[in-house]
Amino acid sequence: MIKCIIIDDEPLAIGVLNSYCEDLGELNVIASFTNPFEAITLLSKEKIDLVFLDIEMPQINGIDFIKSIDNKPHFIFTTAYSQYAAQGFDLNAVDYLVKPIPFVRFIKAINRVKKLMEFDNLSIKGNENVSPSSGNPGSSSNFLFVKSEYESVKINMEDIKYIQGLKDYLKIHTHQPKPILTLLSFKEIQTKLPSEQFMRVHKSFVVNISKIKSIQRSKIVIDDIRIPIGESFKESFLGRLGL
């Protein structure tokens, strides 16, 4: 069963979602709240799989509320306003349901949640040897899962060329033409990467050592891309390569 809560200032909307959850038979609604602040204690104490979250509420809007939560559960925005969809996407919402919500559309959203939860479990198993330190010399996993847009994406370690850090997200560059975007930080991604294969060479770059084509002064060449070597990383990086 998917353990979930509902946060919506409209009791009627809560009733509809409760009814849908009951009809589907795969969700356990353990609580519902018309005031989002009342949900904070529960979210901090219990492991919740899924939150149905309204956006326009008098106390705080759902977007600001989810930004304030640490260790975010999966969440689905439920709102009468379609203009917030882009912001929901940026926050890695599983889905964005516009009221009135058709039951068929609700089922589609829950199927996405189930798929993500399966990926989460695979990711935990695949990275069970990962150390919380920077880099994982004992890791035997050859893949990782990252959340990107509305899904968790499996990435083979060997396919990663380099990772670029931007303001609020990472771009993981692989053999595919389009990079994978994720909201992970460098600290978080490095706990998933084997340290013997990956190394941070700049405040904004981690590289796969096996993909390096050449080193030209203060630049690393991977394919035809030139990646800068930061001054604070230069000595350890070149020493690692015996240079």
TrEMBL record:
Protein name per UniProt: DNA-binding LytR/AlgR family response regulator
Top-level taxonomic group: Bacteria
Alphabetized Gene3D superfamilies for the sequence: 3.40.50.2300, LytTr DNA-binding domain
Segments forming domain HTH LytTR-type: 144-217
SMART domains documented for this protein: LytTR, REC
Annotated positions of the 4-aspartylphosphate modification: D54
Coiled coil: none
Keyword Zinc: no
Keywords attached to this entry: DNA-binding, Phosphoprotein
Keyword hit for DNA-binding: yes
The organism of origin for this protein: Flagellimonas meridianipacifica
An example Gene Ontology molecular-function term: phosphorelay response regulator activity
